[in-house]
Amino acid sequence: MSSFAPSSVPTPRPGVLDIAAYVPGRHAAPGAAKIYKLSSNETPLGPSPLVKAAMARVAERLEIYPDGSAHRLREAIGEAYGLDPARIACGNGSDDLLTLLAQIYLREGDEGIVSEHGFLLYPIAIRAAGATPVVVPETNLTVDVDAMLAAVTERTRIVYLANPNNPTGTYLPFSEVRRLHAGLPSHVLLVLDGAYAEYVRREDYEAGIALVEGAENVVMTRTFSKIYGLAGLRIGWAYGPEAVIDAIERTRGPFNVNALAIEAGAAAMGDKAHVERAQAHNEKWLGWLTQEIEALGLRVTPSVANFLLIHFPTEGEQTAKAADDFLFNRGFILRGVAAYGLPNALRLTVGSEEANRGVIAALIEFMRGRNV
Ligand SMILES: *Cc1c(COP(=O)(O)O)cnc(C)c1O
Question: Which residues form the Aminotransferase class I/classII large domain (predicted)?
């Protein structure tokens, strides 16, 4: 018989209590007449109109368990991208899959590589698996492939790369992603997170399908939360080598994608025209916002996604914090990114025309008020 100290309590595995819980973008701005939520990279166009009808049909039979293998959804994704549905796994948001990959491939004492201003879910997932995040410096707010490769040790098991990255909005050309992959030992899993892939308008960009196809150690994750406008439903997917998909299938929740999500996702995937409208809207307003903000004397990191990073002076009264409060009180909710190591910047999501014009008008007022 073992004896227990009277004070013993359930104890999380090492690393869990080192996690700083993920803080989502704010949503309420009490007092403002109208609120523009520009803090979480959601689309101003909302989901495809086909989604509502698909969900209404499922809503009639919610007593039935969902199809645990999300066949219809995987078929729809496979058809849209020309992929084998057997190599697609779906999740309750891509967060679900990104976290599961850490659980599957990391042991205590292992290391996972992330970049300096990379998406904050990755270190959380790595720590939750009992492993150690290794944070690699960036160059010009862009992932530095040489530095990533230099950080590889015999303990490295996983490398997370958001491309384009959130919150910087910068990206790596596919040649650089290939170079990163080529430099990794074959037992290290490269996770390519393409949450914003649909927004990118660059000849030298690819989300990574071709790389997954030719390698055993690359997996790509994608989401319905951004351009498809279904963040509230939680749908993500991964395309990977058979062995990686098999491991996900064994470890995921048996009904990790709910019935509404399966039908809504399949309907959304089929509406290419809606995605094209969202791309066109973004291209127009991303450019416009960048110009307008730069005209105010503020620096903007060139973005290929549906958000941009605005840099404020480090001294004086026009700080990021002051701007955040000023805009918040007028109903424009941006995202402070101090937790990402960017205390002097705010992230702004491309919104509706009304939101975009409104936030620029408010920024002009802020900059003027502080200049006189
Ligand atoms: C928004 C985002 C996701 C998507 O997360 P979901 O769980 O699918 O909503 C994934 N990666 C990055 C970098 C993101 O910004």
Answer: 34-362
Read off the pLDDT of residues 145-170 as tens digits, 9 standing for 90 and up: 999 999 999 999 999 999 999 999 99
What is the C-alpha to C-alpha distance for residues 37 and 332, in angstroms, rounded to an integer? Answer: 6
- Three-class DSSP category at 330: coil
User: Separation of 109 CA from ligand 1 center, angstroms?
Assistant: 26
* Sole residue written with tokens 């705010």: 346
pTM over 0.85: yes
Tokens coding 270:
């089929």
Q: Considering only CA atoms, which residue is closest to atom 2 of ligand 1?
A: 195
Does residue 92's CB lie within 6 angstroms of at least one atom of ligand 1?
A: no
> What φ, ψ does residue 162 adopt, rounded to 5°?
-90, 125
Q: Which atom of ligand 1 is nearest to the CA of 92?
A: 7
Q: Are 301 and 169 in contact (CB under 8 A)?
A: yes
How confident is the model over 201-224, as pLDDT tens digits? 999 999 999 999 999 999 999 999
What tokens appear for 256 in the block?
């990790």
